[in-house]
Amino acid sequence: MIDLRSDTVTRPSPAMLSAMVSARTGDDVYGDDPTVNALEAEAARLSGKAAALFLPTGTQANLVALLTHCERGEEYIVGQQAHNYKYEAGGAAVLGSIQPQPIEAAEDGTLPLAKVAACIKPDDIHFARTRLLSLENTIGGKVLPVDYLAEAYRFTREHQLALHIDGARIFNAAVALELELSALSRYCDTLTICLSKGLGAPVGSLLCGDEAYIQRARRWRKMTGGGMRQAGILAAAGLYALENNVMRLQEDHDNARWLAEQLGTLGLTVTQHTNMVFAQLPAEQVAPLKAWMQAHNILIPAAPVTRLVTHLDVDRAALTQVINQWRAFLAAQ
């Protein structure tokens, strides 16, 4: 099955599975799982932060990040399409009583700082206290410019805000810019990193920040049910991913670019950013195309704007099959 629904569908390779089977383990709640400790240390090193915390999921990592930054009745400013506002079941509001203040992003995925400034609440008992600016990098596959990150960081210092980056795919941004992760993460107080998307681990995310912040986050992780025991089996997959699967993200970007070019030859309007391709479909083609592809062992999330995501389990030969079947579908219409 060729699966282009997301880069979350990747499966651990034999080498990653071998690392998991041979992982040294302890009890991470007691802090003595050596493989978890090694993963957290490596994430801290790569991000240039003092500490890191291993969590089961990206949603929990973002939730813990927000809970650690904001008290009840405080707020974070975030994009309308940001994952930790739109796609995480309202967890910050429901579980943390943290008010989101969503704003529209610019075309390039940045949050215009003039809009952000206009949303910062005065110090007045009528308003929630504005505590945090949350950005996402990449967002919709788009890489936030480094100059913007630097400007946003300066902005938050001037307005006494913290800056968090939902960096689920931040390694895609670093690879696209040909920069080390720390060159991006230097412009934030905290960031999350997802291990189970393009990096290919089966589960897991990391939250990085200073030592005091991560110590508070560890308590929130426990409270929200994320305290794992012999988690080194999972952490070993994350370590393998960081050591072996970061630079290969460029292959996903190259494959996405090729896929976009080929879809363009079929007469589709297409855009592509890093490992994501967005193709505009006529409404009458959406359901038939999805059924056609599934009948030929290809999974796509067909919609008027269809997002196709390349990843380590889809090579150029598989994408060639996708194009051939898409062409065959159009010919049959």
UniProtKB/TrEMBL annotation:
<dbReference type="GO" id="GO:0006567">
    <property type="term" value="P:L-threonine catabolic process"/>
</dbReference>
<protein>
    <submittedName>
        <fullName>Low-specificity L-threonine aldolase</fullName>
    </submittedName>
</protein>
<comment type="similarity">
    <text>Belongs to the threonine aldolase family.</text>
</comment>
<keyword id="KW-0663">Pyridoxal phosphate</keyword>
<dbReference type="InterPro" id="IPR001597">
    <property type="entry name" value="ArAA_b-elim_lyase/Thr_aldolase"/>
</dbReference>
<dbReference type="GO" id="GO:0008732">
    <property type="term" value="F:L-allo-threonine aldolase activity"/>
</dbReference>
<dbReference type="InterPro" id="IPR023603">
    <property type="entry name" value="Low_specificity_L-TA-like"/>
</dbReference>
<comment type="subunit">
    <text>Homotetramer.</text>
</comment>
<feature type="modified residue" description="N6-(pyridoxal phosphate)lysine">
    <location>
        <position position="197"/>
    </location>
</feature>
<dbReference type="InterPro" id="IPR015424">
    <property type="entry name" value="PyrdxlP-dep_Trfase"/>
</dbReference>
<dbReference type="Pfam" id="PF01212">
    <property type="entry name" value="Beta_elim_lyase"/>
</dbReference>
<feature type="domain" description="Aromatic amino acid beta-eliminating lyase/threonine aldolase">
    <location>
        <begin position="3"/>
        <end position="280"/>
    </location>
</feature>
<keyword id="KW-0456">Lyase</keyword>
<dbReference type="InterPro" id="IPR015422">
    <property type="entry name" value="PyrdxlP-dep_Trfase_small"/>
</dbReference>
<dbReference type="GO" id="GO:0006545">
    <property type="term" value="P:glycine biosynthetic process"/>
</dbReference>
<dbReference type="InterPro" id="IPR015421">
    <property type="entry name" value="PyrdxlP-dep_Trfase_major"/>
</dbReference>
<dbReference type="GO" id="GO:0005829">
    <property type="term" value="C:cytosol"/>
</dbReference>
